[in-house]
Amino acid sequence: MKIIPGEVDEKETVFICYFVGCGFLLVFAGVGYGEIPEWLSETEASQMQVTLLSARIDYMMRNPASYLDVTFASSVGTGQIFIFIHDNRGRFLYKSGVALLDAFKRELEIIHSFIAHVAMNINTDVMAAFFSRGNIQLGSFNYGEYYLSED
């Protein structure tokens, strides 16, 4: 094969591209090595928020036909967890008095089982409010006591 001056054969082209590519890799690999971009180091949610969101999802996934709309919030200062329970299924619609309190208690115990690892004592670590479909407060739970809201 005769090589004409100024002409590059295929092997040489591959060879040159390989070394130029390796050179770029070495140059760019060393820039910023080990540094975490600032946007990755920003905290979007606290560990407690992630834990409570995970508990909400677990509750819904394990009770697909009967779960209520549950929202969790936590207090940084007191360490208490607030649970807002909305009756999106009309479960409390025709109940009142003792029957309503018993339904609240059963539902809160089920929900608490999903956060028991962060709220170990339901009587001191949890406060809850129960709401009807129309967002009317039906009752609450505070320091181990269940209360019905007055009409």
Write a structural description.
- The chain has helices at residues 10-30, 38-41, 47-62, 97-112, 122-125, and strands at 69-74, 81-86, 126-131, 137-142, 145-148.
- The mean pLDDT is 80.
- It contains five helices and five strands.
- It is an alpha+beta fold and 151 residues long.
- The radius of gyration is 30 Å and the shape is elongated.
- It has a five-stranded mixed β-sheet with strand order 1-2-3-4-5.
- It has two domains: 10-40; 47-144, GMP Synthetase, Chain A, domain 3 (2-Layer Sandwich).
What structural keywords apply?
GMP Synthetase, Chain A, domain 3; 19% strand; 40% helix; 5 helices; five-stranded mixed β-sheet; alpha+beta; single chain
The averaged pLDDT comes out at 80
Indicate the proportion of strand residues: 15-25%
Helix run count: 5
Quickly count the domains: 2
Question: Any idea of the CATH class of the largest domain?
Answer: Alpha Beta
What topology does this entry show?
Layout: H1 10-30, H2 38-41, H3 47-62, E1 69-74, E2 81-86, H4 97-112, H5 122-125, E3 126-131, E4 137-142, E5 145-148
Brief account:
The protein has five helices and five strands. By secondary structure, the protein is an alpha+beta fold.
